[in-house]
Specification:
Elements lengths: L9 H14 L10 H12 L3 E5 L4 E9 L3 E5 L6 E4 L3 E6 H12 L1
Antiparallel strand pairs: 1-2, 1-5, 2-3, 3-4
């Protein structure tokens, strides 16, 4: 009785392992730049914006510039404001709000 020991080829195993590791998904990017795109779009069009602050106060104007931590809001009838992003609850376009009010009245 002659028994032969069957061993797998090591190069085949290494290739299979490298293919499996290549299939793993990479992590999504930390920065999507969606916020930057939105700010640039509103700045270029000088869209009238409403900014709701954490305390509920609403300020209106258009975005002149922004950076990582804050944005500058230009206002026609009042002084311009430098607002920290951490104090902003949310932003909205004033044109959209007016259209929604008109639809609600009909």
């Amino acid at each position: 009785m002659n028994r032969k020991l069957i061993r797998p080829n090591l190069s085949e195993i290494k290739e299979k392992m490298s293919r499996d590791s290549a299939k793993k998904k990479s992590h999504p990017p930390y920065e999507t730049y969606a916020e930057n795109y939105y700010y640039l779009k509103q700045m270029n069009k000088k869209t009238p914006m409403g900014v709701v602050l954490d305390d509920g106060e609403i300020v209106e104007g258009y975005i002149e510039w922004y950076d990582k931590n804050c944005l500058k809001l230009n206002r026609d009838d009042a002084p311009n404001l430098l607002i920290y992003k951490s104090s902003i609850k949310y932003l909205y376009k004033l044109d959209d709000a007016k259209e929604k009010e008109k639809k609600a009245k009909k």
